[in-house]
Amino acid sequence: MITILIIVGVIILLIISAIAIYNNLIRLRTKVENSWSDIRVFLKKRFDLIPNLVNTVKGYAAHEKSTFEEVTAARTAASNISPNDVKGLANANQALTGALGRLFAVAENYPDLKASTNFLDLQTALQNIEGDLGNARRYYNATVRDYNIGIKQFPAVLISGAMGFSEKEFFDLENPAEAQNIEVKF
Q: Contact, 45 vs 129, CB < 8 A?
């Protein structure tokens, strides 16, 4: 009788442990999904701000058509990436960051533009969004790190594969130099 109670106790303990491990993995995966959603929100803000910025600069520098087209094309390409394509979104935003850098280089040549309140407001908004996006990227990568560690650690590794938990991608850029925030100084 005591042997049966011990076996039942061990089985109950294993079931409770498996439930706790599963719940922890769900919590970690949800944090990754939430932090990815935060990145998408900041990218949407960035995408929404760019047309206003382009139109403001366009009024001063109508002959810089190729720069405006490049920014618009990069924005469109980035906004058309699948919501779950971490690498594709990172690469598209890398191209967008480069195009924005060239747009601000054009703006350097127009002192009236640099003094425009509308342009300065847009510049400040973009700087704030870039800072928020950098923070969101760091947080996303931290949650991915914790999640990936969580699914690989023993005893969770025994449950994670069977329950469909797979490794998540980090938000990495191909060119680390372009991972820096856009510096918008005049």
A: yes
